[in-house]
Sequence to fold (364 residues):
Amino acid sequence: MSHDLSRYHRQMLLPGFGEEGQRRLLESSAVILGCGALGCVVADILARAGVGHLILIDRDFIEMTNLQRQVLFDERDVLDAIPKAEAAKRRIANINSDVRVTAIVDDINHTNIERYAQGADILVDGLDNFETRYLANDLAVESGRPYVYGAAVGTTGMAFAVMPHCSGDRPWASTDAGNLATPCFRCLFEEAPPPGSSATCDTVGVIAPAVAIVANFQSAEALKILTGNYQHVNRCLLNIDLWANEFMQLKVSNAYEKGDCPCCKHRKFEFLDGAAGSSAATLCGRNAVQLRHKQQSGDVDLDALATRLRRHGEVKVNEFMLRTEIAESHKAYEITLFRDGRAIVKGTDDPGIARSIYAKFVGT
Fold:
């Protein structure tokens, strides 16, 4: 397929880019995991840059509260109840017709991520929970593909490009390239925090500029990787706090050598194999789903979580459990969270919706 490269003239002027880099972009494909705040910005930038095939995966529909930071959507999408992945696809079609977009409306889990990411050159993180990030990291390391992590909540954000340690058939891992491989996500974050201990956008809020900074950093790293400019990939962990005026780059390159990562050192892919992570079971006749973490260390701080959730409504909490009702997408859900992290989400029999509610209001 021939392309008119004139629309990319300004970026083709950049050193290390040129026509060759542009053609590499047009022949490449990227999986964007999640079409929320981060995923929207990344998809928009990569589409305008001319990444040939974008695979957008998201389980949710658009809500009015998304519009404050999710730049591919508008009020009509909310009124029409369009899934995020499909609405993003329609928007991108009007931005760059050179780009092929595959929209997948589904919950990302260990049974489908390999199939959905088949043939993609890079995985980009627009996720809202640690479990799926560990899953994406497993796939990246197992298949020798880069994974660009990103997260933003409140006024803070983090980002890091994972260039997996793998056999020398990957250009960044070859001796000739000076071995530009990086630690993986699990090297940096050995274990997920206990459920309820991490802030989420739905419990503490989020400022759009924090999202934009993180997503633009992710996009820049993705463009470096897809054009073969591996030597320019940032080997530091970006950490920002816009309210505290803090911009830090944490040196983490020795985390691989000093650590004993089960994923990239021992090649144990527990999340990809389904041995780790959460399990979901639909409770017969109850219109509810039970979620259980397979690896959970320590008790949930129910009182701390109750404090955050009270801004959404009444919360009942005791030494054994927390219970609250959440209004989401004009529907009411009841969350019952036990001290060991097990939860029952009432109001749906769809495990994907239950996981979404859990991730938004409990976290991890």
In short: Residues 36 and 70 are 6 Å apart (CA to CA).
